[in-house]
Amino acid sequence: MILVDSSVWIDYFNGNTTIASEKLDSMLGMRLISTGDLILTEVLQGFKNDSDFTTAKSLMCVLPVHNMVGHEISLKSVDNFRLLRKKGITIRKTIDVLIATYCIENQLILLHSDKDFSPFQQHLGLLTI
Questions:
Q1: Span 85-114, mean pLDDT?
Q2: Which residues have C-beta within 8 Å of that of residue 27, sequence separation ≥ 6?
Q3: Please, are residues 4 and 111 in contact by the beta-carbon 8 Å criterion?
Q4: CA separation (Å) from 50 to 14, 91, 123?
Q5: CA quadruple 94, 58, 24, 14: dihedral positive or negative?
Q6: What CATH fold (topology level) applies to the domain 2-128?
Q7: pLDDT of res. 29
Q8: pLDDT tens per residue, range 51-67
């Protein structure tokens, strides 16, 4: 299963053509795509236009939605953040640490266009596409 990060959804809904948004477009209806509660919040809160919001919400809510944060993922995220920081890498957004950790722990492939996920791929085994 592929989990799509908000960085890709935002480009997709804004019509920005990127490698990741093109991958998403080609996979919709062809591959099992999912999202997470954190990603759903990040994406949907950014819409100003009610019609665009309703369309995006309808599309995203038919996908499997993972409940991403709980006690275990919170603590494992702390461990991952601290491990990377000891290597001289500071992740800018806590939400990215939570998303990456959830994917690692659940062996989900992450489609993203956010450089903060690269250390998780390089040092912690995050699977990406």
A1: 97
A2: 2, 33, 111
A3: yes
A4: 14, 33, 41
A5: negative
A6: Rossmann fold (3.40.50)
A7: 85
A8: 999 999 999 999 999 99
